[in-house]
TrEMBL record, chain A:
Localization in the cell: Nucleus, Nucleolus
InterPro entries in the cross-refs: Pop5/Rpp14/Rnp2-like, RNase_P/MRP_POP5, Rnp2-like_sf
Entry keywords, A to Z: Nucleus, rRNA processing, tRNA processing
GO CC list: nucleolus; ribonuclease P complex
Single GO term (MF): ribonuclease P RNA binding
Family the entry assigns: Belongs to the eukaryotic/archaeal RNase P protein component 2 family.
Record GO biological process: rRNA processing; tRNA 5'-leader removal
Organism: Operophtera brumata (Winter moth)
Known role: Component of ribonuclease P, a protein complex that generates mature tRNA molecules by cleaving their 5'-ends.
Protein name: Ribonuclease P/MRP protein subunit POP5
From TrEMBL, chain B:
Gene Ontology molecular function: any one: RNA binding
Cellular component annotations (GO), alphabetically ordered: nucleolar ribonuclease P complex
Species of provenance: Operophtera brumata (Winter moth)
Family statement: Belongs to the eukaryotic/archaeal RNase P protein component 3 family.
Pfam families named in the record: RNase_P_p30
Record-given protein name: Ribonuclease P
Keyword list, A-Z: tRNA processing
Subcellular location: Nucleus
Keyword rRNA-binding: no
C-alpha cells in the first residue's frame, strides 16, 4: 500500500493596514474560501477538484500571523503556485509569504516553534516590563485556537 | 566583484518604490536588487527643433540619470543595490542614440524591450545588452523563433520574466504565462531570469513564492531557483564584463585601515 502523503504549508500573512503590534484577527473560513477561489482562478475546475480532498486551512496565531495549509502531495503544487497571487482576504489587503513546506505536521510545528521564538526575541527587546513580556510569550506560543495542541505535546 | 555575495537577486524593482522601507526586501530573503529606470519610446517621432545659426543646441541625453540612493540607506542595509535601465525600442536606429548617451554608462545592467520583429532580431543578434524583456500588457506581435533564441543564448543574453504584473491583473498573467511557455517550447527555458518589476512592496514576493510562481512558468523548482540565483549572478558578472570592455582582470584595493586594526 502506498501511503497517503500530505504536505503542510506554513504561511505568514502580512498586511500593511494592521500595525505590527496589534494582533490580526481573521476567520479561518474566509481564508479557506479565498484560497480555493484563487486556485479556481488560476488552475480552473481541475485544480479545485484535485486540491479539494484533504484540503485544510488553519489560522494559528494572531500575533505572528501564521497559518497552516494541509494539502495532498502532488496537487499541493497548485496551492503553492496560487498563494503568491492572493492580494486580498475579505476586505484586507494582504501579502502571503510562504515560510516552509513540510511533509509531516511534526516537522512543520518544530519549524513554527523556532519561528515564534525568533519573533519573541525580536519583540522582547521593545517591551519594558517583565509582565508584558510574559503576556506576549503566552500569546505568541499559544495554539489553543487550533486543535493542534496535542501535537506540541507529542514533540516535546 | 565575483567574490561578492550576490545570493538571491531581484533584478527589476521599479525606481518609484519607497527607498525608506527597503529593509523589507531584505527580510524576504533577497541579497541583491536592481532599481529599474524605464525609458519609453517617444511617440510619433521627435519634432526636430529648428536650427538657428550661432546658437549651440543643448544636447539632451536620451537616457535619464539613474536614481541616486541616499548614503544612509545604502550603508544601513546589507543589500547590494544595482542600477538598471530598460529601453523600449522598435527599430535598430536606436543604436546611434545609445552610443551618444553618456548616462548609459552609469548603469550596471542594460535591458531592452523590443516591439517589432526586426527590433527583436537586432537585440538578439548584435546589440550590446544584457537582458531582453517582452511586453506584458498586450500580445507580442511577433513570434520568438528557435534560431534567434539560440543566438541570444550563445551571446549570453538573458530573457526576463516579470511576475508583479501577473499578480495585479488577469490579462497580464495570461500574457506572461504564454511568453514563459513559449520560451520553453522554443529553447527549453534556457537563460531565464525571473524578476519582480514591483512598484509597491505589496507586489514583492519571497524566494519560496517566486519558486512556486516558476512552476506556472513551466520551470521545475531547480530551474526556478537557478533563475533567481545563479543565472542572475552570471548576468551581473557578464554586465560587469561588458562595462569594462576587453579586460580580463579587475584589481581592487583592500582597505588598508582594516589590516592595521588587526595588528593592534
Amino acid at each position: 500500500m502506498v501511503r497517503f502523503k500530505n504536505r503542510y504549508i506554513t504561511v505568514e500573512i502580512e498586511s500593511p493596514m494592521v500595525p505590527d503590534k496589534k494582533p490580526l484577527s481573521l476567520k479561518s473560513s474566509i481564508f479557506h474560501d479565498t484560497l480555493l477561489n484563487k486556485v479556481q482562478q488560476i488552475h480552473g475546475d481541475f485544480g479545485v477538484a484535485a486540491v479539494k480532498s484533504g484540503f485544510l486551512t488553519k489560522y494559528c496565531n494572531e500575533n505572528t500571523r501564521i497559518a497552516i495549509i494541509r494539502s495532498r502531495h502532488g496537487p499541493h503544487k497548485f496551492v503553492t503556485s496560487s498563494i503568491p497571487f492572493i492580494t486580498k482576504i475579505g476586505k484586507l489587503d494582504v501579502r502571503l509569504n510562504t515560510l516552509h513546506v513540510g511533509a509531516t505536521l511534526k516537522n512543520s510545528f518544530q519549524f513554527i516553534q523556532k519561528h515564534q521564538r525568533a519573533y519573541l526575541d525580536s519583540m522582547w527587546s521593545k517591551l519594558k516590563t517583565d509582565e508584558e513580556r510574559k503576556n506576549l510569550e503566552a500569546a505568541v506560543m499559544d495554539f489553543t485556537k487550533t486543535d493542534v495542541k496535542i501535537n506540541i505535546e507529542n514533540i516535546s | 566583484m565575483s567574490c561578492h555575495n550576490w545570493g538571491f537577486c531581484d533584478l527589476c524593482v521599479s525606481n518609484k518604490i519607497d527607498l525608506e522601507k527597503i529593509e523589507s526586501i531584505e527580510k524576504l530573503g533577497y541579497n541583491t536588487i536592481a532599481l529599474n529606470t524605464y525609458v519609453e519610446e517617444p511617440l510619433g517621432g521627435e519634432p526636430k527643433p529648428k536650427k538657428k545659426k550661432g546658437e549651440t543646441r543643448e544636447k539632451k541625453d536620451y537616457i535619464p540619470d539613474p536614481v541616486d540612493i541616499p548614503k544612509e540607506i545604502a550603508q544601513s542595509c546589507k543589500l547590494n543595490i544595482l542600477q538598471r535601465v530598460t529601453i523600449e525600442f522598435s527599430e535598430s536606429g536606436i543604436a546611434h542614440k545609445l552610443n551618444q548617451s553618456e548616462n548609459l554608462k552609469k548603469y550596471d545592467i542594460i535591458a531592452v524591450v523590443p516591439k517589432t520583429l526586426s527590433a527583436f532580431q537586432y537585440a538578439c543578434g548584435s546589440m550590446d545588452i544584457d537582458m531582453i524583456s517582452l511586453e506584458t500588457n498586450c500580445r507580442i506581435p511577433f513570434k520568438v523563433n528557435r534560431k534567434l533564441y539560440r543566438q541570444a543564448i550563445e551571446r549570453g543574453i538573458f530573457f526576463e520574466l516579470t511576475y508583479s504584473p501577473a499578480i495585479r491583473d488577469s490579462t497580464a498573467r495570461k500574457n506572461i504565462i504564454t511568453t514563459a511557455h513559449n520560451y520553453y517550447a522554443v529553447g527549453k527555458s534556457k537563460n531565464i531570469v525571473i524578476t519582480s518589476g514591483a512598484e509597491s512592496y505589496m507586489h514583492l514576493r519571497g524566494v519560496h513564492d517566486v519558486i512556486s510562481i516558476g512552476f506556472l512558468f513551466g520551470l521545475n523548482s531547480n530551474e526556478s531557483m537557478e533563475s533567481i540565483r545563479s543565472n542572475a549572478r552570471t548576468l551581473i558578472l557578464k554586465a560587469e564584463g561588458r562595462r569594462h570592455g576587453k579586460h580580463h582582470m579587475v584589481i581592487q584595493t583592500v582597505d588598508v585601515n582594516k589590516d592595521q586594526t588587526f595588528k593592534d
